[in-house]
Amino acid sequence: MILAAGRGERMRPLTDDTPKPLLRIGGQMLIEHHIHALAAAGIRELVINHAWHGAQIERALGDGAAYGVQIRYSPEGERGLETGGGIFRALPLLGDAPFMVVNADIWTDFPFQRLPRGIDTLAYLVMVDSPSHHPEGDFSLSECRLSRQGPRMLTFSGIGVYRPELFAGSTAGRFPLAPLLRTAMDNRQVGGEHYSGRWYDIGTPQRLAAVNEVVINQQ
User: Which CATH fold topology does 2-218 show?
Assistant: First the structure.
């Protein structure tokens, strides 16, 4: 699943008329970069949620045939359902097995083929070194398990694998993902890894411009 329903408030005015996943880095739409990477990893069935200007995303990507994948959409209306609510709504499209999720508003060279297809925990998160705009990090990684606090605080990359059981007890509507993850962490049910390759959070127009320059210069 590619999460593409964010409003992109911090990216305004760029997102006033364009959904953030369609902004470009290195001449390619952010969401296209993920689709190509997922297809290269052998992942052919994708679900994409959308909200703000979501019809533009469907027009831009179609059914995925141009990328060698099959895309199904999970529309959420203009307001969106936050990360937890968005994934929960899409569960009927995702099936009963563990599924991968990636945020559309990051740029990374993470090789998706190295993600585990099956997990013995409720979730498995890819963590990265904390960037300057988020120095405190999100979670601590120790012996392939994540916890709320610890000596090695890292930032969640927006890439993960989840079992549908993580959402047991949830109800339809807007809700964040983080509380579900923290509860699972308290029960030692969240695994993870540290990725040290290229990863950028495209959160502001300034970061978009900076990452664009880096990616173009390094291609």
Answer: Spore Coat Polysaccharide Biosynthesis Protein SpsA; Chain A (3.90.550)
Of the CA atoms within 13 Å of residue 143, those in its CB half-sphere come to: 2
Judged on CB neighbours under 10 Å (0-12, 13-18, 19+), 96 is exposed
> Taking the domains of the chain in order of start, what are their residue ranges?
2-218
Cα 162 from Cα 110, distance rounded (Å): 18
Residue 194 and residue 128 in contact, taking contact as beta carbons nearer than 8 Å = yes
In whole angstroms, what separates CA 134 from the centre of its chain?
A: 17
Q: Where are the alpha helices (DSSP H) in 114-204?
A: 178-186
pLDDT by 10-residue block (mean), the chain, 219 residues: 85 79 89 96 96 93 97 91 96 96 95 93 97 92 94 95 96 95 97 95 85 74
* Predicted TM-score (pTM) of this structure: 0.94
